Amino acid sequence: MAEPQTMAAPAKVNLALHVTGQRADGYHLIDSLVVFAAAGDRLSAEPAETDEVRVTGRFAARVPLDGANIAVQARDALRARLGAAARPVRLVLEKNLPVAAGIGGGSSDAAAALRLLSRHWRADLGEEALAAVGLRLGADVPMCLAGRPLVARNIGDAVEPLPRFPALPMVLANPGAPLSTPAVFSALRTRDNPPLPRLAAAADRAALIDWLAATRNDLEAPARQLLPEIDDVLDALGRTGALVARMSGSGATCFGVYADSDAAGAAAAALAAAQPAWFVAATSSLAAQENDHG
C-alpha cells in the first residue's frame, strides 16, 4: 500500500494588521503583513473505501470530525468541483495549533486540504481556481494557500506575495483560552484606520523591526478588553527579550520576534517553565523563497 501523502499547514502570523474600513455586507477591510511559521498542523491523505476523518495531536479534542471541520468542508468543496474523480479518502489531521487562536489554524488546515487533495486526486485546477474554492470557505484561506510572506488587503482575499523577505526567529504563545473573531471585531471602536506604511522591497531583518514599530494590530485593543490574559502574554514575551511583541490576528496568540534562534529557544523554554498551561512554541517564519507547499 502506498504511503499517505502529507501536507504542512503552517501557522499564519499577522505581523501587522490594520483595519481600514467595513463593507455594507459587514465584512471588514484589512491591510495586513502576513508570514507563515515552521510550526503548524499537518494533514495526510490516503485512499479509503469510504470517507474517513481522524484528528490527532495536542488539540485534537477541540476539533470536530463532521462538516463543522473546515478541512472536511474543503474536501467536500473540492469534490463538488471535480466530480467522480474525487474518490473516497482518509484524512488524518495532526492538530498541533490551538483552536480559535488568531494564527489561522483552521484556514491553514483548509488550504492544506485543498492542496493535498488536488495532488491526491490528480486535479490541475490552477492557483486562481483553487483560491476561488478557498475563498468560499473563508476570507483567510486564499492567503493560506499562498503560504509565503505577503500583504493581504480587501477582506484578506487580495494577496500580494513579497518577492524577498527574511526569516524571523519567533516564539508563539497563547494563554489557553479561545477568542471569538466576531466578538473581537464587534468590540472594535474604529474601523477606518490608516493602511500600512510602505515597506521597502528589500528590507532586511533590522529594517523590518524598525518598520514594525510604526505599525500595529488594530484588533489587539478589543481583544485585550475581552481577554485580559493577553496582557500577561505580551508582558511575558517582552521580559524574555523580544524585539517586537504583538498579538496575531484576532488573538489570543501573541508572537515575539527575537535576534536569533537561540534567543527564541531560550525565551520559549523560560515561558513554558513559568506557564505550563500555555501553548508555547519556538519557531521561525518562512522566508519568501522557502515556500514549497510541502
Structure description:
The protein is of the alpha+beta class. The protein folds into 2 domains: 5-161, Ribosomal Protein S5, domain 2; 169-290, Alpha-Beta Plaits. It has 9 helices and 10 strands. Strands 1, 2, 3, 4, 5 and 6 form a 6-stranded mixed β-sheet that branches. A 4-stranded antiparallel β-sheet has the order 8-9-7-10, sandwiched between helices. Strand 1 and strand 2 (28-47) form a beta hairpin. The radius of gyration is 19 Å and the shape is globular.
Average residue pLDDT: 94
Number of discrete domains: 2
- SSE pattern: EEEHEHHHEEEHHHHEEHE
Judged by helices, strands and strand pairing, the structural class is alpha+beta
> Which range does the strand content fall in?
25-35%
* Gap from first CA to last CA: 21 Å
CATH domain class of the largest domain: Alpha Beta
Please state the second-level CATH architecture of the largest domain: 2-Layer Sandwich
Helicity level, as a percent range?
A: 25-40%
CATH names the topology of the largest domain as Ribosomal Protein S5, domain 2
Let me know the largest β-sheet. Answer: 6 strands, mixed
Rg over CA atoms, rounded to whole Å, is 19 Å
| Spans of at least 5 consecutive residues with low confidence | none
Separate helix tally = 9
